Amino acid sequence: MANSAGSKKRARQAVKRNKHNSQIRAKVRTFIKKVTYAIEAGDKKEATSGFADMQKNIDQAVSKGLIHKNLAARKKSRISNQIKAL
User: Quick one: residue 4, left, alpha or beta (phi over 0 = left, psi -120 to 50 = alpha)?
Assistant: First the structure.
């Protein structure tokens, strides 16, 4: 339990930051799913347009430190290869 005023503030900030970061992570997952579903449906046009949005969101999450840069690179690479294979 937080005792000092500073530790209470830090606890409040941690809750606020956790909520914000969770929303961003969920948004990234949503964009990844959107592109994946388009690939499964065989819709190359939809997958390509969704990929650009997905890439932007993943890069923003990396710059904020929410996901590791290698994870982001791996996701983008694998999905890009799937789109090329369509």
Answer: beta
Structure token pair of residue 15: 């809750």
* pTM for the model: 0.82
Of 30, 31, 24, 34, residue with least CA distance to 61: 24
At position 32, the amino acid (one-letter code) is: I
Q: Token pair of 60, please?
A: 């923003």
Q: What are the tens digits of pLDDT across the range 42-54?
A: 999 999 999 999 9
DSSP letters spanning the chain: ---SHHHHHHHHHHHHHHHHHHHHHHHHHHHHHHHHHHHHHT-HHHHHHHHHHHHHHHHHHHHTTSS-HHHHHHHHHHHHHHHHH-
